[in-house]
Amino acid sequence: MKFDFSYFISLFGQLLPFVPVTLLMAVVSMALAIVLGLAITLLELSKIRALRLFAKFYVSLFRGMPTLVQLFIVYYGLPQIFPALRGIPAMLAALVGLGFKESSYLAEIFRAAIGSVDEGQIEAGKSLNIKSSKLFFHVLLPQATVNALPATGNTFVSLIKETSLAFALGITELFAEGRMLAGDSFRYGRLQQLIEFFGQVTKEDLEWRFPP
To answer: Which residue, of 2, 67, 121, 126, has the greatest Cβ tally within 10 A?
Structure first.
């Protein structure tokens, strides 16, 4: 099949406006996931057994449940249980569902990053009567953040791909628009190549910023 360059350029122009929608969903969901993931990590490291068990249950539940099922539960299930949530915007439901899903992965990443910091530094700080809060924010957290960056970047790349599932809630983003354009022209190959191009550019940029 002859490559139609003009058609390829026209598709580029039609898909480009949906790139910010996809990136916005990924960034906001990732921000929510980071906050929740850090909170769950602190619960996992707590000395209170009940909190540790809750954190383990949370991670096991959301990591084991398919993302699409979580989106359906948030958008369709929760309003049936809590009438106040009826009429929740599809975008908000998608952001919450994706955020909770990714937070279960980030919690394990953060826990491993904190565990990778040499305990001798903490013991040395305690021997100097430095407060635990200062040790956490000035010694432990900076080093753990650096250790967690590569895996966190990989999680963000996966999150960008998972935003395509928001189409099931009626949200039109990059991947959804690509499928609809392909359905109109039946040129699925060209659309797939272009969508992969957008995804590869994002992936390469993140890998350059957060090298493994």
So the answer is: 67
- Per-residue pLDDT at 187 exceeds 70: no
The pTM for the full model equals 0.80
pLDDT at 177: 65
